[in-house]
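INFO  loader      accepted 1 record
INFO  loader      residues=177
INFO  predictor   begin
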Amino acid sequence: MFAKAILEHKIQQYTTAIGHYTEILRDSPSFSLAYFNRANARYDLMNYKDSQSEFPEMGFRYNSSIPLKAVSSKRVENQDYDDVIMDFTKCTLMDSKFPYAYYNLATLNINSKNYGEALDNLSKAIENEPKFGEAYYNRGLTLIFVRKAEDGCRDLSKAGELGIQEAYLAIKKFCDK
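INFO  predictor   done
INFO  writer      dumping tokens
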């Protein structure tokens, strides 16, 4: 059933995938990866619905089962992320060393303008995966946004060292002044 849920998600049958993950969690409520994947499917469904309107790209990165996607900066202001947040949070409670759940939770925090929580979650992602370039990149941008440019530029530099090419453009734009 887990493989079927993954396949349904991959072919963008989000509602069906969410249903499969929910069924799996009914039988195995401590299956952290099912919470992670269901949260991603829910998030992707929300993105799909959002894509029916204007969908500009900002630059923050989002991880949906490792392949990275751009995240929209223009969202419905108070979009209801409660179910997605709940699933990512359950995943982190069951597997506190899984950096991608913290990373994706931080993305939601950024979209919801909860920058302090975003920074905490990105720091946890980095703590659990010190070579997580995308987490350094997003933390760097968030730090710059909250007016901690020196720390943000340091994170962007680390992201660049870890292979995130966009970091160099951000450094040029925000740090070389």
